[in-house]
Amino acid sequence: MEDLERIFKHQKDYFDQGNTLSYSFRIKALNNLKNSIKKYENEIITALNQDLGKSEFEAYTNELLVIYLEIKHTLRNLKKWMKSENIFLEIFLQPGSGKIHYEPYGNFYKNHIYNFN
Predict the structure, then answer these.
(1) Which of 5, 35, 59, 61 is the most core-located residue (most Cβ within 10 A)?
(2) Is residue 91 part of a domain?
(3) For the residues of 39-59, what is the DSSP string, one character each?
(4) Does the reported pTM lie above 0.70?
């Protein structure tokens, strides 16, 4: 458990430095994720078969394909999602201007143990 806490702290520190905010970093990270999943696709399918009894077709369509499509959707829309939005300010704030700048909240750690037997 200490290793997980150390890794999580390292990731949080890295995020807090602002390293993950750029468009190019996010695109690279998404492509790395996609390539890593692709690289280990056979091992993932084998694990899903051994652990959950999923056939190759079921594992690919219900697990991997969903992730691939989510990554594709995110790659296609990321620039639009990162774009700042001009907003109308109330009269008492005029002649000011306002923007909403979207940023990620941070990182999170989620650990679940499943027993399907």
Answers:
(1) 59
(2) yes
(3) HTHHHHHHHHHHHH---HHHH
(4) yes
